[in-house]
Amino acid sequence: MSYLERFRVRPGARVQLAAIDPSFKDRHEGQDAAAAEIDECRKRLVDLQEMLYVERRRSLLICLQGLDTAGKDGTIKHLLSAMNPQGCTVVPFRQPTAQEEAHDFLWRVHRATPARGEVTIFNRSHYEDVLVVRVHDLVPKSSWSRRFDRINAFEQGLADQGTQILKFFLHISSEEQLARFKARLEDPTKQWKISESDYEERKYWDEYVTAYEEALSRCSTEHAPWFIIPANHKWFRNLAIGRILVEHLEGLKLTYPKPTVDLEHIRREYHAAKHPAGA
Ligand code: AMP
Ligand code: MG
Q1: Ligand 2 centre and the CA of 218: distance in Å?
Q2: Separation of 278 CA from ligand 2 center, angstroms?
Q3: Ligand 2 center to residue 66 CA distance, Å?
Q4: What percent of the chain has pLDDT over 90?
Q5: Which of 157, 174, 232, 243 is 20 to 30 A removed from 254 (C-alpha atoms)?
Q6: DSSP-derived secondary structure for 209-256
């Protein structure tokens, strides 16, 4: 089965994260065994992204969501190794600024969406407005509960304009998060990542799971699907997302645009320049 199908949340399905194994690694024994396939995928992505860029008809919006340490930053690093920076942008979403706060929640999101031919990767996204906002009561329930329909309508609008949206939930276990926090504490090159709020947020694990389950269930649509990616193994996460992107982009049947110039004419000019009359 394609990974596009396998990890996709079917529209209308009721997601239960506890039923999905975050340590899943398919038929692969481990990172070394999968390395060749990961690299193959990466190379294929390089070509496909270039075609998307030169075709300039459609665009791709990748949304990354997950609890702290789920691997959003690591995924971005991996994906950027498969993208020409010309044509790919990463946009992080943090706590809204005063100006953003004074606008509709989709204001800052819409302006960050990709132009034709481009790939944009959202590090967090408009989904925070039904996740962190809900878990911490930042706006009343009467407000955030209406956002699922708003999000679906917004994403439908983007899809109508040729923007394909692929949304990835990086699924890790609570034990894996603890292990990653510990690794950060011990590794001087990772200590900068630690914030007080990490441990605070962990206390809200169950609330986040509830919020994610509703978002994944209500907002996985034909035009903007959610994928639940087993992410306890970083290499498998990279492999799965890479494969899904490749499968999706291959399905677009991208083509190089037709030349806008008369090639025969240019060939004749070239020939004439190389062999000047009388030379
Ligand atoms: P990081 O991704 O580690 O840089 O952290 C960004 C922080 O911004 C996280 O704690 C998010 O929960 C928070 N954040 C992102 N979007 C929103 C939002 N719409 N409302 C409130 N907090 C947000
Ligand atoms: Mg982060």
Answers
A1: 25
A2: 68
A3: 9
A4: 92
A5: 157
A6: HHHHHHHHHHS--SSS-EEEEE-SSHHHHHHHHHHHHHHHHHHTT--P
Q: Whose CA is nearest to atom 22 of ligand 1?
A: 95
* Crossing angle of helices 234-251 and 31-55, rounded to 10°: 30
Predicted confidence at residue 279, as pLDDT, reads 61
Domain range list for the chain: 3-274
Q: Give just the sign of the alpha carbon dihedral 242, 64, 69, 14.
A: negative
What average pLDDT does range 163-178 have in this prediction? 97
Instruction: Report whether CATH 3.90.1150.10 matches the domain 3-274.
Output: no
Q: How many CA atoms lie within 13 A of 68 on its CB side?
A: 20
Which residues does residue 164 pair with via DSSP β-bridges, in sequence order?
60
Give per-residue pLDDT as tens, 123-166: 999 999 999 999 999 999 999 999 999 999 999 999 999 999 99
Minimal-distance CA residue to ligand 1 atom 23: 95
CA of 196 to the centre of ligand 2 (A): 13
User: Which atom of ligand 1 lies at the shortest distance from residue 195's CA?
Assistant: 3
